[in-house]
Amino acid sequence: MHVMFFTERAYHAVPEDEVFKIRSFFGVPNKFFDAQKGAQLLNEYIDEKIMCDELGFDGLMLNEHHGTPFCMGAVMDVEAAVLARATKRAKIVLLGNPIPTVANPLRLAEELAMIDMISGGRLVPGWVRGAGSEQLANNANPAYNREYFDEAHDLILAAWTRPGPFRWEGKHFHYRFVNPWVLPLQKPHPPIWIPGLISPETVKWCAHHRYPYVALATLLKPTLEMFNMYAKIAGDLGYQAGPENFGYLQPVFCADTEEKAEELGKNFLFGGGFSHFARPEWMFPPGYNSKEATRRLASQAANPNLPGHGLLDHDPENDAELQALKKALYGTYPEWLRQSQMITGTPKTIVPKLRHVLEVLRPGIFSFWLDGPAPLKDRRRCVELLGKEVLPAMHEIGKELGLTDPFQVKPGSRQLSNGKAEPVGRPDLIAESTLGA
Amino acid sequence: MAETSHKEETFRVGETELRVIKGGQGKPLLVFHGELGFPGWLQWLDVLARKRTIWIPLHPGFGKTPMASWIMNMRDLGAFYARFIREQKLAPVDVIGFSLGGWLAAEMAIANSAQFSKMVLVGATGLRPPSGEIMDMFTRTARGYLNASVIDSRNNPEFAKLFGGEQTPEQFEAWEDARAETARIAWAPYMYTQSMPELLANVAGLPTLILWGKQDPVVPLSAGELYHQKIAGSKLVTFDNCGHMPEVEKPADFIKAIESFLG
């Protein structure tokens, strides 16, 4: 089992009410950004990742967002380059580079190749379509998002594996000279993992490419349904999906006492928390969704999977409304815990809860997710406890449950038994309390 | 008010089944709808349909007519309609274009002004406004864009009839189709052709009427004035206290201006 650590590298010094005012992190005016504070936080986040490497985490997971205090990692490859040299052992897992928003995918292929070389072959690149707002922030035409994604993916792999120089005359990308003189250390190319919010289109695409699919903190039941969709397609393609094909990211907050851990966890809802506030005009720019996804959306204004949805159908018009919204939102905290969307506790109480998640989903990849404006010493203590006490237990459980990771079993290499795909995970173990939406 | 009967017909243009709303009688009048699709049979169409056969093609990718993936910019869309006009033997035809539909008409007139007999541009996009900016529909919801495009969305009965009330799933889907196709052809530069001011010289000689709401919040009047300046012999008529939809906001003045121009 491959266990990672992840955080969004948030700019928590943003006044929370500014986020509530527009009910979105994306779009908060950057006059609230103080570069001194930002510099301090970015370095703390890098130090935290180095600490994780020393504690024995298998992977250091990064991601990328633009134009939002929710995540300062606007150019994730810069952080990855720092970690490539400053860490010794852990994989550097990029989930993922938003390739449709990158106008020059060849440059991205070169950046990643350099990171792989500097790190001694520890890079795991991944690709995402980018959230709707990323298309606006990068002025990438959302109507061609899927086409850009497919073509940029093919171009990057070609740049890494096809002897140059060659020409590339695609629909969206055009190069007269592809011949990079920096190539990844890992051959034929670094392993590729794909994160997602259980969009069926992405799950299908991953199964076809035999790429591990990492579900980002989605509810257990629909997550397992998607894993099984993957497994079914894998079966049709002639291979059996195993734990090495799946990953799961989960917010986990660990402290010396239950109370402290709960307090830490509640910070996760800062500003509305992950995906709480998603203005439809920014999350769903034109043509970003498939026709099928648009049809699904037509009958629901936003993602109903998340507790707290629909607390207010307009921006708060005065302070009383804003404070009431904030209170209602923080009031959803017990629901987050009940649905196992978030796990809090001491190492002793966390491990059985994590065991349940691992038993249900049977992923070969797992990532802790720590976020929220907590004091540095509490964050550091959380990471320390996770690394020293929870991580070894996870490795043991992984062994016991046979949760092979992509470095132990090559994803897509498992044979079908009797020519038929076996379902994955244990839906029968999903407790009543975690059924969710 | 009784609505003139109109119906939907299908015409084949290359590989595409083009859906066209047709109604009325007499000489054909081609109507190009704007960036959110055909809003519905309006009062002004009723009046004009007494003397003219109205042809309103529903642009490829806007829902009813399937998307043609090769259409990636306004020149492509213009060439598609040039073929349609040629094959239906409509040329030279009178044309009215609204907003993005006005840009389409202007592009087609630049390529071949002889395919039109008269051209009416209503709050047309297509030019970078010398002052102000074209309102960005892509950072708004469809409903938000519509409400912001007129001076008074709350007290206009025809606007309320078209766009008021609860948004139905069908309406949402149609608007999302329209937004997606508009993004394919007009994402950047947003809603205009860089070379348009120079190319409009090719339109000289085509009788052109330019209609604009003086307070148009979507395409600033400065763009209408530039169209007027660059199309030799064109006529500019503006409506006071009017936004981006004079056909809905000032229907009587709008109809009068069009009737006196088309004859």
In short:
The complex is a heterodimer of chains A (437) and B (263). Chain A is an alpha/beta fold and 437 residues long.
Summary keywords:
heterodimer; A: 437 residues; alpha/beta; nine-stranded parallel β-sheet; two-stranded antiparallel sheet; 42% helix; B: 263 residues; Rossmann fold; 10 helices
What does this structure look like?
The complex is a heterodimer of chains A (437) and B (263). Chain A is an alpha/beta fold. Chain A has one domain (2-74, 193-434). Chain A has 15 helices and eleven strands. In chain A, the strands form two sheets. In chain A, strands 1, 2, 3, 4, 7, 8, 9, 10 and 11 form a nine-stranded parallel β-sheet that branches. A two-stranded antiparallel ribbon of chain A has the order 5-6. In chain A, β5 (166-169) and β6 form a beta hairpin. In chain A, α3 packs parallel to α4 (105-118) and α7 packs parallel to α8 (220-237). The longest helix of chain A has 26 residues, at 376-401. Chain A is globular and about 60 Å long. The two termini of chain A are 28 Å apart. Chain B is α/β, with parallel strands linked by helices and 263 residues long. Chain B has one domain: Rossmann fold. Chain B has ten helices and eight strands. Chain B has helices at 43-48, 74-87, 100-111, 142-149, 157-163, 169-186, 196-199, 221-230, 246-249, 251-262, and strands spanning 6-13, 16-24, 27-32, 52-57, 93-98, 116-122, 208-213, 235-239. An eight-stranded mixed β-sheet of chain B has the order 1-2-4-3-5-6-7-8, sandwiched between helices. Chain B is globular and about 45 Å long. The A-B interface holds A 136, 139, 141-144, 280-282, 284-287, 289, 291, 294-295, 297-299 and B 138-141, 144, 169-170, 172-173, 176-177, 179-184, 187-188.
**Nearest-angstrom radius of gyration of chain A?**
21 Å
Number of strands of chain A: 11
Written as H for each helix and E for each strand, in order along the chain, the element string of chain A is EHHEHEHEHHEEEHEHEHHHHHEHEH
Average pLDDT number of chain B: 95
Number of domains of chain A: 1
| Helix proportion range of chain B | 25-40%
Low-pLDDT segments of chain B: none
Number of strands of chain B: 8
- The CATH class of chain B turns out to be Alpha Beta
Order of helices and strands of chain B: EEEHEHEHEHHHHEHEHH
Query: Biggest interface pair, residues each?
Result: A-B, 20 and 19 residues
Q: If classified by CATH, what would the architecture of chain B be?
A: 3-Layer(aba) Sandwich
Query: Share of helix among residues of chain A?
Result: 40-55%
What percentage of the residues of chain A does DSSP assign to strands (E)? Answer: 5-15%
- What is the helix tally of chain B? 10
**Ranges of chain A with pLDDT <50 over ≥5 residues?**
301-308
Beta-strand residue percentage of chain B: 15-25%
Major beta sheet summary of chain A: 9 strands, parallel
Indicate the overall shape of chain A: globular
